[in-house]
Amino acid sequence: MGDKDVWHYILPFPLETEKRSLIWSILQSKVGKSLLMNMALEGRTYQKDLINGTSYSNKSIIEYLKRMVSADILTQGMERVATGKRKVRVRWYIPTNLGRWFILFLKPREDIPPK
Question: Measuring CA to CA, which residue among 93, 89, 87 is closest to residue 62?
């Protein structure tokens, strides 16, 4: 096996043991990996899109999103959106710089933007 058979990649990890453990638990889970792979690199990803885009339970998805926020992989926010006569609050997530590393790590090579 030569250097051409190896994907050269460096992943930064936080110094805090608790955050490192959280990240490992996310990366070892099918739910966590699926959510990271469905996360937009730029801009907001809405919680409802993640719930509708995977086959996992709402409870599991929300739990892993909370873990990702605690591990500083994602930041979260809410906005009010008008749906007909009502306004509802929707939750969104944006990857942090650390989160972008993990998202890029999990994406297939051909899906990684050259930039």
Answer: 93
Of all residues in the chain, the percent with pLDDT exceeding 70 is 91
8 A C-beta contact, residue 102 and residue 23: yes
pTM: 0.83
Q: How many CB atoms lie within 10 A of CB 74?
A: 24
What is the Cα–Cα distance from 42 to 39, expressed in whole angstroms? 9
Residue 71: closest CA among 36, 45, 112, 113: 36
- Give the residue from 39, 33, 78, 40 showing the smallest Cα distance to 56: 33
Strand ordering across the sheet containing 45-46: 45-46, 86-95, 74-83
Closest CA to 38 of 102, 115, 109: 102
Is a pLDDT exceeding 70 seen at residue 4?
A: no
DSSP secondary structure letters along 64-107: HHHHHHHTTSEEEEEEEEEETTEEEEEEEEEE-HHHHHHHHHHS
